[in-house]
Specification:
Strand 5 and strand 6 form a beta hairpin. With 325 residues, the chain is α/β, with parallel strands linked by helices. The strands form 2 sheets. An 8-stranded mixed sheet has the order 3-4-2-7-1-8-9-10, with helices on both faces.
Length: 325
Amino acid sequence: MRAAEQQAGPAGTRWSARLHVVTGKGGTGKSSVAAALALALAADGRRTLLVEVEGRQGIAQLFGTDPLPYSERHLADAPGGGEVRALAVDAEEALLEYLDMFYKLGAAGRALRKLGAIDFATTIAPGLRDVLLTGKVKEATTRTAGQRRTYDAVVLDAPPTGRIGRFLNVTAETARLAKVGPIKTQSEGVAALLRSPMTAVHVVTLLEEMPVQETVDAIADLTSLGFGVGRVIVNATRPPIPAGRVVQADELRAGLLAAGLPADERTVTGLATEARDQAVRRELEDSLRTDLVELGVPLTELPLLPDGVDRAGLDRLAEALVRAD
């Protein structure tokens, strides 16, 4: 099946992958964007799974629910009868599941947990943790029930840009080091999915210098490792200011008087200074936006939510993602 056919539905071929990996520098709102994308892709009777792997319970906080367990559960309804389910992947639980699935060590695995052996294993082999996390995501993405996929799309709230390349590439490294057995087979399967047209990595950023630079670096890293970059998602953008428009002190004074507000010299001067600072800031944002456009990756802009990210805000972001060019 071609990538463009895998995710038709409300967002058409603009979000054509089945697994959407969402990363971004800390503080850019990547978890909010991941949640909004899951809502967008679940519209019109579809089912999506929203997964987190960092143990922060950020999804539960966004939706105002109890902490997520290591099991898929209903999270939210989407327009048109769709459903978003959620899962918080825990490395320890994933290892127990893995031992039971491939080695039939269900009871023995639980005994190992009591002895602390699982914590020991994931500590001395940090890459093992990421293999387990991505393996669970792969299982959910490819799972079928009858003749159809369990989920129309899976959205992964992934680690930040500084760690995303290493996180996604660990399965390929594990497959290279493991010679035979289930670990090698599992790692090869995960690595193949992550590098296939079924997977797209989206990078969330703000129009600020450090997040944009991390976005540029992350895309270069992901591309060199062979991962497919989907979109750059610019979060919290503001409406543009007309080019060359600078508010003058006389206009400010007249506006304040018309509104019945104080129009003394100190107030007018302070507002004029702030207006100039804003104009300089918008020029910088325009320059950073140009840097992102030059990456040659589709660009999607999401609006700033003045009241913060609540469920209504997530729905607004989801609508913007559906309408993305």
